[in-house]
Amino acid sequence: xxxxxxxxxxxTPLKREPYDYVVVPDFVRADGFRGVVADxxxxxxxxxxxxxxxxxxxxxxxxxxxxxxxxxRAAIEKKFGVDLSARPTMFxxxxxxxxxDGKIHTxxxxxxxxxxxxxxxxWEKDGGRLRILRNGTDIEDYVDEVPPHGGTLLxxxxxxxxxxxxxxxxxxxxxxxxxxxTDQSVVARxxxxxxxxSTFKKLNPFRRAS
Length: 210
Prior knowledge:
Blueprint: H1 6-11, E1 21-24, H2 30-38, E2 49-50, H3 58-67, H4 70-80, E3 89-97, E4 111-118, E5 130-133, E6 142-146, E7 153-157, E8 164-165, E9 171-181, H5 184-203
Antiparallel strand pairs: 1-7, 2-3, 3-9, 4-7, 4-9, 5-6, 5-8
Helix pairs in contact: 2-3
């Protein structure tokens, strides 16, 4: 089964203000989306968790394999005009959002391209909608707002002004994050950091640790 709508990504124009990004609603095809949601792994608490710390399989695992495949990489290279052939990838998953999440940031300098794929069936709340921001201080000064549902894809090029964040939300908020990063040492360091945090949350399931 093909999960990703590459034709939709190709025909969606790259936006360049205030930085390079693209939003593709329904990027995960409807028939595949239902299967991926059904197979979305239990996530041990808030924050980001590496795939090694959750149990993946079925449609979810197949989706990850397609995201990490050559067709998606080629599509992103073409869209952003960047060569990712020698760049490693890194994946984390989220399942729960805290009211303290969503603070304005740009992502670390070791990230080249950030991919966010939202796996919530519907989204009616104001909080939790990622905003593409003009600056690093005002969450209301945004050019775009991305509802985190229905297999919506957001991809942006990390830069010193790639500000983004969202209004507070407390509850289930499923998202897959994929990054192309500068080198393999980044993957080892970041995955190790998330692994420690994930293990702590497994041992303390009732504590909403950062």
